[in-house]
Amino acid sequence: MKAASFDLAYPVDLAEATALLARADSRALAGGQSLGPMLNFRLVRPSLLVPIAGLAALRGVEETAQSVTIGACVTHAAIADGLVPDIGLNVLARVAEGIAYRAVRNRGTIGGSLCHADPAADWPTTLTALGADALTSRGRRIPMQNFIRGAFQTALQPGELLVAVAVPKLGAGARWGYVKACRKPGEFAHAMAAVLIDGAVRRAVIGATGGAPQMVGDAMPGGLPGVVLARALAEAG
Ligand SMILES: Cc1cc2nc3c(=O)[nH]c(=O)nc-3n(C[C@H](O)[C@H](O)[C@H](O)COP(=O)(O)OP(=O)(O)OC[C@H]3O[C@@H](n4cnc5c(N)ncnc54)[C@H](O)[C@@H]3O)c2cc1C
For residue 93, how many other CB atoms are within 10 A of its CB? Predict the structure, then answer.
């Protein structure tokens, strides 16, 4: 199928983008890797698309002693290629290079992935385990575990953009495990789990659950989620 017709309006800056997105029937377009198919299948029919991938305000990367802040429109490929500073253990690059295949990574963005909030996507689960925060165009700072609200649901309000993601750096001696089960390389996962052990921080998160990533307490989940979690725990040592 082909997308229903829509207008395109290229904003010059973040202010113009948010003004355009104040229209109820508008939609931000980042890498188009998820939105493109949704338009073609007519699952969404916005009358206005606002391409945001070229906006400098969404492409910056900032490193401090505590964290790395990654603009929403930084691509998976840029992260996989090491163009974003490491938070430790090369975690971000390792996650990024496991997303789909190169053509998708070249255009798909970290922010688009989080805003699309597919339960089987890599960033929602891994950034929840890493304790990242979402920074929005309304000046809100939202912990990742509150940002992803459910399958294809986020805490963003209408017209609000994700601007960046702040990821805390790992401490010395931190350990990380991330395992996903895919039928074929490059496919979306059927189960995934991420484990971070970093000083007093101990987080185990399972994804691809059909909803938001789930923090795991003491009880081990059963079935495939339990298997991938056991492997992620083993990887984290
Ligand atoms: C064949 C294929 C295989 C894939 N495999 C995987 C995989 O294994 N793992 C994985 O994690 N992902 C996978 N993906 C998804 C890919 O990672 C996409 O890049 C990602 O889901 C969406 O990013 P995007 O930049 O293309 O966003 P878009 O498709 O442009 O946008 C997605 C949604 O987010 C909204 N949006 C985008 N950016 C913002 C923002 N800054 N603020 C507010 N709203 C915004 C858009 O309006 C839209 O609703 C795959 C995609 C394809 C096509």
Answer: 19
| pLDDT tens profile 84-115 | 999 999 999 999 999 999 999 999 999 999 99
Per 3-state DSSP, the chain is made up of helix, strand and coil in percentages (nearest 5) of 30, 25, 45
Beta carbons within 10 angstroms of residue 139's beta carbon: 7
Q: Where are the domains of the chain?
A: 175-236
Residues with CB under 6 A from ligand 1: 27-35, 52, 72, 99-100, 104, 107-109, 111-113, 115-116, 118, 121-123, 156, 161-162, 188
pTM over 0.85: yes
Provide the pLDDT for residue 218: 73
* Residue in 111, 114, 121 with CA at minimum distance from that of residue 148: 114
Which residues are CB-contacts of 93 (< 8 A; sequence separation ≥ 6)?
A: 79, 80, 81, 82, 84, 86
